[in-house]
Amino acid sequence: MLLHDPMCLFRFEEHDIFLPMIVLEELDGHKKGMTEVARNARQTSRSLDALAGQSDRDMQGGLPLNATGHKEAGGQLFFQTQLLAYTLPSSLPQGKADNQILGVVEALRQQHAPREVVLVSKDINMRVKSRALGLAAEDYQNDKALDDGDLLYSGAIALPQDFWTTHGNRVESWQQGANTYYRITGPLVPNLLINQFVYFEAPGEPSLYARVTEIRGDIAVFKTLKDFNHLKNSVWGVTTRNREQNFAMNLLMDPDIDFVTLTGTAGTGKTLMALAAGLTQVLDDRRYTEIIMTRATVSVGEDIGFLPGTEEEKMGPWMGALDDNLEVLGRTDTNAGEWGRAATQELIRSRIKIKSMNFMRGRTFLNKYVIIDEAQNLTPKQMKTLVTRAGPGTKIICMGNLAQIDTPYLTEGSSGLTFAVDKFKGWQHSGHITLARGERSRLADFASEVL
User: Fold this and answer.
1) Strands 17-19 and 118-120, how do they pair?
2) Torsion sign over Cα 397, 399, 405, 410
3) Angstrom distance (rounded) from CA 438 to CA 269
4) pLDDT tens by residue, 241-250
5) Are 118 and 109 in contact (CB under 8 A)?
6) What tens digit of pLDDT does each residue of 93-148 get?
7) Helix or strand or coil: residue 62?
8) What is the mean pLDDT of the chain?
9) How far is it, in rounded angstroms, from Cα 269 to Cα 266?
10) CA distance linking residue 283 with residue 344, whole number of Å
11) Hey, how many other C-beta atoms are within 10 angstroms of the C-beta on 274?
């Protein structure tokens, strides 16, 4: 748990924390190296040193956890300073660190009865062993943005069927440029967020597709969307094929939206739409100078070893999705001939830079269109590192499928993508949409459902 979140000591509110000495030994054994685990071990050690240094109390009597100014901390931190007597089943190897920790929990339970003693660990097997021995054990929940992935903000809401006729809602409309605006007053407003999409579909009634642009008290303003389903509004030759894709394209093409998150199953068009919108805004509109693409380099199966070449060449094998989508976007009129197609591909390639996440620290992107692919494999800390690279005029697109997390210690609830969606919802310069329908092929759609 300390290796997972260095600040976890300050997130137990009024509860006291007991650190067995073997935990400190394990912490010391993981502090060397440049991995995320090693960095977290060093940060935890610094936090423990700061706590011990700022308190004039004897460590044996407990250290106040609010000594460092953390508002949520209120309990005390106790260190194991003496050998505790305990008896564990002989079937458990006594020399193993996990079993020694279980022994400390058992000794504390006997020593402090009837006070509740709970083992908190990210190690699933350790929690199972603890419960098998009759000891209380819990997972560390504070790192989870959501308890259940189904509760994740979807970015769109269907208006009720009686929306236009109910007496509770008052609707006014006006035209401004190419858009129609609606001012809504009524019980629906408290459930809405800025940049959330709303839609109304009913047989025999005119459909409405709009985005919430303003909320003041019990008043909300809707703005109708541009229809990217129509060929005349195609983006780099790409038209959207369903409602959610149209919502996503409205976010991607809006210069006032700085941060876009897209989630959805395989084949819903996340990468294709992000690239099409990026190429249009870089090459046609000149809104951004170039596209920067990166992704978490987490393999699905066994690692194939080191990759040769420069940074961009090393990232090449990870960017198969980029090549596949560029093949679609690079199609030009057959009359252009071989030279025309090659020139188009060369032009597109010159405006796309592939970067590794490992070298992002300290960088600032000015007027760039940044695509972070496979963002479900990022930790919240890595997500923060990437998003804070944005300088003036930069737009960041985060895409991922929360059903395809390959990082061993992440779940749907603790993924950096979930974290970003949850924290950015309702901000006036960000938007999110969950893409629902696959458009890759009937085979891919069926496989997503049944496998």
Assistant:
1) unpaired
2) positive
3) 7
4) 899 999 999 9
5) no
6) 877 888 888 888 888 888 888 889 999 988 888 899 999 888 899 888 776 766 66
7) coil
8) 83
9) 8
10) 11
11) 25
Using the structure block, give the residue that is written with the tokens 């006729």.
Answer: 165
- List the one residue out of 142, 146, 11, 35 whose CA is nearest residue 382: 35
Helix-, strand-, coil-residue percentages of the chain, each rounded to 5: 35, 20, 45
* DSSP sequence for 40-54: HHHHHHHHHHHHHHH
pLDDT digits (tens, 9 = 90+) for 277-299: 999 999 889 999 999 988 876 55
Q: Is the previous residue joined to 64 through a cis bond, with omega within 30 degrees of 0?
A: no
Task: Say which amino acid occupies 202.
Answer: A
Domains in the chain, CATH or no CATH each: 8-138 (3.40.50.1010), 149-224 (2.40.30), 252-450 (3.40.50.300)
Note whether 312 and 372 are within 8 A (CB): no
Q: Which of 53, 25, 54 is nearest to 41 (CA)?
A: 25
pTM: 0.78
> Which 3 state secondary structure label does DSSP give 114?
coil
For residue 188, the SS3 value is coil
**Identity of residue 197:** F
Find, among 329, 370, 377, the residue nearest to 353 by Cα.
Answer: 370
Q: What are phi and psi of 43, to 5 degrees?
A: -65, -40
Neighbours of 114 (CB within 10 A): 5
Distance (Å, rounded) from C-alpha 27 to C-alpha 2? Answer: 8
**Residue type at 137 in one-letter notation:** A
Find out whether 181 and 173 touch, Cβ atoms under 8 Å.
yes
Task: Tell me how crowded residue 180 is: count the other CB atoms within 10 A of its CB.
Answer: 14
Structure tokens, 393: 């005029």
Q: How far is CA 368 from CA 37, 293, 314, 371, 451, in A?
A: 31, 10, 22, 10, 38
What's the CA gap between 5 and 41, in Å, rounded?
A: 9
Position 331 pLDDT exceeds 80: no
